[in-house]
Amino acid sequence: MNRKPLSEARDADLRHAQAALERAGIRARELAARTGTAVVVMRQGRIIREYPTMQDLERK
Fold it and tell me: How far apart are CA 44 and CA 41, in angstroms?
């Protein structure tokens, strides 16, 4: 496995992958807050369902 940071990758798509994943996570939480559904995430090796609210999103 290559230990170099993604910012040093030769492939432009790979260099921008982290930012794209972060944007997707924000959008998923916004959609979940609007629809009252869960976002499934892994924290400390456990699968957790989070139910974000619009107030949670405004605090960040």
Answer: 10
Domain limits, the chain: 11-59
Give the end-to-end CA distance of the chain in Å, rounded to a whole number.
34
Task: Please give, one letter per residue, the 3-state secondary structure of the chain.
Answer: CCCCCHHHCCCHHHHCHHHHHHHHHHHHHHHHHHHCCCEEEEECCEEEEECCCHHHHHHC
Q: How far is CA 40 from its chain centroid? A: 10
pTM over 0.85: no
51: nearest Cα among 23, 21, 30: 30
pLDDT digits (tens, 9 = 90+) for 34-55: 999 999 999 999 999 999 998 8
> Token match 């798509």: residue?
13
